[in-house]
Structures are given as structure tokens and as C-alpha cells.
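tool_log.txt
---
The assistant was asked to compare two proteins side by side. It first ran the structure predictor on the initial sequence, then on the second. Raw inputs and outputs are pasted verbatim so the downstream comparison step can read them without reformatting.
(1)
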Amino acid sequence: MAQPRAWPLGDSLGLAADEEFLLDQLDEVISSATESSKAALLAAAAGAPELPIAAAVDQFAAYARGMLAGGVPSVSCSRS
């Protein structure tokens, strides 16, 4: 998965194929977890007033995939 370190305190370098593989694995986990969560929440809310559960879970899944694709956005705070 990663190139071995050149010296004991050096960094391990991941290859582009490794990164793509890991991102694919994380995407599958996000899909699986959000679908099972959606099913459980919909089952628990059965008979209750309508809630936007499916939309909320789908929105979270899209957010998580976006974070994987683009990373964490940098936030700058300036005070006037």
C-alpha cells in the first residue's frame, strides 16, 4: 500500500492507486452505513408524522462524499 521508508524516521509515501483504492473503500462504507441508517430511522419513524429522514441522510452522504473528494476546506477567520 505504501512505499517503505528510506530511513527510520522518514515518511511513508502512498501511491495514487493506493489513494484511489482507499477512497473507493471509504465511499462504499459511507453508502452502506447511510443506507442502513436510513432504513433503521425510517422503520423507527413508521406511523409518526412525516419527517424528511431520507433527504437528510442523503444530504449527509453527499456531504461525506464531498469531504472525501475535496478534503476539508480551509477556513480563514479575520477580525475587523
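(2)
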Amino acid sequence: MKKIIITFCIVFILFTSFIIFLLSVSDDPDGDPPVKKQKITYNFILLIDLSNRVSAKKFSDQVEKDLSLLDQIFNFFEKKIASDLYIYAQDSMKITILPNNAASSMSSELDFTIDYSQIGIHNKRDYFSQKKKLIQSELNKIYQDASKKEYLSADIWKFFKEDLSYYLKKSNPNTQNFLFIITDGYMYSKTNICSKQNRYTYILSRNLSKFRNNNEWEKLFDSNDYAFLSVNKKFSSLNVLLLEVKPLEFFYNEFDIMKKFWSKWFKEMDIQQFEILKCFDNMNRETYYKNIEAFIYGKYERNENNK
């Protein structure tokens, strides 16, 4: 009888301890239910400058570099949708080419959009590989054509002023909007050369010369409020990567001046997360790509080697 009582007590103690354990792990210390982690979706916007920066005569390797970079961004996008097993993905990608006639000259009817929120579950697994192949084939043709025609301008300022808002996805607070701008950093359009006081829709030698090789250039810049002309827009939900910036090497501070113009413009548009990277002539391609991936996943760290 004594053994039965001892056994009963042991079982009771173990059972009570188990119940207490279950209650302790199922309830928050403050009595709040556990918070369900929200799913993040990506919206990639690729803005490609096909002005004379891709001229086959002037920069023979730029087309190959751009296409390689674009392929890598496609890979980053695929990594995201693969993490959702494709069928659960709701991410999107849109490619825009400037100048507009660079794409229209090819009479392409291809839609440069990949949008998983619009694709039925049974088609999602093969959708990306099929659409990627079509887009990359068309981009190759457009690049080759642009490299021969040497378009003089790409109106990035106007894109921010008139078009960018329509590319952003704002209805879902868990969507992260990324804008990748592939350009040499010299913003210019022959149909949009405007200025007001010390603000411009462009940066060229005419408004950079006073800063070049000038040790007091930052003081001059700040005290006279030099900048890009405002587009009177706010893009607080936007992350921006300015890629392939190619400053003239004749001036030791050219890249710093360009960064000052672009950074001030981004901040005035309430863009908090942005990075400006030189063309990857200045670093190993693998390192360059890793910097881009780190920015996408919020792990990018600025240092001198990234400049």
C-alpha cells in the first residue's frame, strides 16, 4: 500500500510539473498572445539608362557588364521567390528603359514585368524561368541596338517626377520596394535642361566644374544650396541602389561630388535607405554582387572599399 501511495505521488508531481510547463511556454509573460511573423514581399523596379554610356565605341565592355549585373539581380529575385517555394510567392519585378525610344525602336511587345501576385498557383513554378528567358533575350537585343545608336540622354529626373509613384506597391505594409538604377551618374536629358538658382535637372561639366579639384567644394556646395531640382515627391517606402556610377578620373573628388548631389536629392524625397556604388571596375565582381545582396537583405555595411 505504501508503494502505491509513493508511486501515485510521483505521478501526480510529474503531471503537475508538465501542466505548469505547458502553460509557461504557451503564454506570454505579459499575458499577450504570440505575435505571428508577417510575410515580407519584394517589389523590384529596374531603371536602365541606355544613353551613350553603353556606346560600343566609347565603352566596349559596358553592355556585357550591365547584362551580367541584370542577371545577378534576377538571381536575387529568384532566391526570394524560391524561399517561398514559388507557389506562395507574391513578389514582383518591373523593368523600365530610358530613353523610351531605346526599347520602342525594337518594336517589342514583350511586357517587362514579372508579378507573382497575378499568377495562378499551378503556373508559378515555371513562370519565372520562362519569363526570365524571354526578357533577357529581348534585353540583349535592345542593348546591342542602343550600343550602336548612342542615345544622348535618359531623363531619370522626369521618371522620379512623373512615373515612379505608379511603380510602387503601397497597399501592403509588408512590401519592400527596391529601385535599382543602372547609370553612369551623370543625369542629363536634352529635352529637360532646367535650373532654378543652384538647383538643376542634370549634372554635367557646366555645373560640376566649380567643385572639381577644389578643396573647399563641400563648403561651397552646402552654403549655396546646390542640388538637383526638387520633384516635390516623397518616397519613404522606397529603397534605392544607384549602380555602375562612372566618375571621370581626371578629378580626384568627382565621385564625392556626384554622391553629394544624389544623396541630397534622395534625402529630400524622404528616401532613407539608399546606396551609391561605383562601376565594378573598382572592385571584384563577386564583392560587388555581395554588396548588392547585402543591401537587399539589410546587411550592407559602408566602408572605404565599397566606394
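---
observation on (2): The mean pLDDT is 86. The longest helix spans residues 124-149.
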